[in-house]
Design brief:
Blueprint lengths: L21 H10 L14 E2 L11 H9 L8 H14 L3 E5 L2 H12 L5 E4 L4 H9 L3 E4 L20 H10 L8 E4 L12 H13 L4 E4 L3 H11 L8 H10 L3 E5 L10 E5 L2 H14 L10 H14 L2 H20 L12 E5 H4 L9 H13 L1 E2 L1 E3 L1 H4 L15 E5 L7 H16 L8 E5 L10 E4 L1
Parallel strand pairs: 1-10, 3-4, 5-6, 6-7
Antiparallel strand pairs: 2-8, 7-8, 9-12, 11-12, 13-14
Helix pairs in contact: 1-14, 2-11, 3-11, 4-5, 4-10, 8-9, 12-16, 14-16
Bound molecules: pyridoxal-5'-phosphate (PLP).
Length: 458
């Protein structure tokens, strides 16, 4: 018989989980204003809120924590990270930052001014937040196929070259400081961008002399999809693919809490010495001196080691395999999900599950609350709450998709946990017609409201 798949690691440290009753959860979620961000972690049994900073570090990463060099300037841990970024990504310059959004803050401070436009593929919420905070506009150029959750397309994160060229033709070059390719594209469902698309976008940007950057949080997962889905890459190693991907861009912002499997950290890498000098100033101003950038020496070491582990095929196969496993289970129960399953998360199509609720009652948030009540599982809304209000008109923005995202932390849960989550959703799906009311907002912040919004039942 053919041998089944098994993870390329075993578990050395365990963290107990707390169970709760439905009655307890009803009380807790009400107190939390029906916002899952407001729950205490011990009120959650299986936490799929995010895969950001929630992964399990390896014994080698924990060793780096002990080896951390806490020198203010020129620490050994910094040089370890520099070596990893130079060799794995081929990027000559970088500054560490405390998170991905901090890298965005540093880069955009150097590049973006009022009235600028920044084209890309469904910009991540903090990226968009940092652009709009500077009174500039993010223009989404993702291919139309991304909006149809039922359609199979191997690279739904791709940028539509015609849409991108339209932007380049509509606005003067001075008003377009950069183009951002998010790999994988979080907002459109953890969907990858093909090497061909990266190459073509890069070519178009060169033609119009616009710098192009990766939002690189999940670059390794993107490389895995290129290897397994794109012609000509099956025999290339993940690291060869990664090097080629980065060869087409001028730099990258990185949230290391994703594919570098650390609990905190980020960096900003670039090729151009002049830009590096400019960002250095903002790094020192906002983050810290250039060789630590808001992180402890031990964090830099764990990050360097995490970059190595995160670009191993066996790790990515197990990681993406587990996400696909959950997606497969949900499909077996008939639950509509984004096709194909993304790299870091399964996206349930809440608009289809709760099609009888109006969009003004936040279908995806309603489903997220139901999932918590059913089994203590925490997912997150990727829908109208996240889409926020239009910065100019202050009208609610209703995106094409109302998704419930179930993001899987790296090396943390077993497939038994995935079975439990799938069963919870199957129960909800069966009784979906009885869910007759959604939620309404009672309080919200002026920017990035989804983190703190308070709701009540309609
Ligand atoms: C997480 C993430 C960010 C922001 O990074 P933080 O480390 O959370 O600040 C930016 N872009 C993408 C695609 C991300 O997934």
């Amino acid at each position: 018989m053919e041998l089944p798949y098994a993870e390329p690691y075993k578990i050395k440290v365990v963290e107990p989980l707390q169970r709760s009753t439905r009655t307890e959860r009803e009380e807790w979620i009400k107190q939390a204003g029906y916002n899952l961000f407001n729950l205490r972690s011990e009120q959650v049994f299986i936490d799929l809120l995010t895969d950001s900073g929630t992964g399990a570090m390896s014994q080698h990463q924990w060793s780096e924590i002990m080896l951390g060099d806490e020198s203010y300037a020129g620490s050994k841990s910094y040089y370890k990270l520099k070596e990893a970024i130079n060799t794995l990504l081929g990027m000559p310059f970088f500054v560490p930052t405390h998170q991905g959004r901090a890298a965005e803050n540093v880069l955009f401070s150097a590049l973006i001014s009022e009235n600028d436009v920044v084209p890309g593929n469904s910009h991540f919420d903090t990226t968009k937040g940092h652009i709009e905070f500077r009174r500039a506009t993010a223009i989404d150029c993702t291919i139309d196929e991304a909006a149809d959750t039922t359609l199979y397309h191997p690279f739904k994160g791709n940028i539509d070259l015609n849409k991108l060229e339209d932007v380049f033709k509509t606005y003067p070059k001075e008003q377009i400081p950069l183009c951002i390719i998010t790999v994988t594209c979080n907002t459109s469902g953890g969907q990858p961008v093909s090497m061909q698309n990266i190459r073509e976008v890069s070519g178009l940007c060169k033609k119009y002399k616009i710098p192009v950057f990766f939002d690189a949080a999940r670059f390794a997962e993107n490389a895995y999809f290129i290897k397994t889905r794109e012609e000509g890459y099956a025999d290339k190693s993940i690291r060869e693919i990664v090097l080629e991907m980065y060869s087409y861009v001028d730099g990258a912002t990185m949230s290391s809490k994703k594919d570098a499997i650390v609990n905190i950290g980020g960096f900003l890498a670039c090729r151009d010495k002049e830009l590096f000098d400019k960002i250095s100033m903002y790094c020192i101003l906002f983050e810290g001196y250039l060789t630590y950038g808001g992180l402890a020496g031990r964090d830099l070491g764990a990050l360097a080691q995490g970059l190595m582990e995160g670009t191993e095929f066996s790790f990515l196969e197990s990681r993406i395999g587990q996400v696909a496993y959950l997606g497969q289970k949900l499909r077996e129960y008939g639950i509509p999900c984004q096709e194909p399953t993304g790299g870091h998360a399964v996206f349930v199509d809440a608009k289809k599950v709760l099609s009888h609720l109006p969009k003004e009652q936040y279908q995806a948030q309603t489903l997220a609350v139901e999932l918590y009540l059913e089994g203590g599982v925490r997912g997150v809304e990727i829908g109208a709450l996240l889409a926020d209000r239009d910065p100019k008109t202050r009208e609610n923005r209703y995106p094409d998709l109302e998704l419930l995202r179930l993001a899987i932390p790296r090396r943390v849960y077993t497939n038994n946990h995935m079975d439990y989550v799938a069963a919870c959703l199957a129960n909800i799906y069966k009784r979906r017609a009885q869910i007759t009311t959604g939620l309404k907002i009672v309080r919200e912040a002026p920017i990035m409201r989804h983190f703190t919004v308070e709701l009540e039942k309609v």
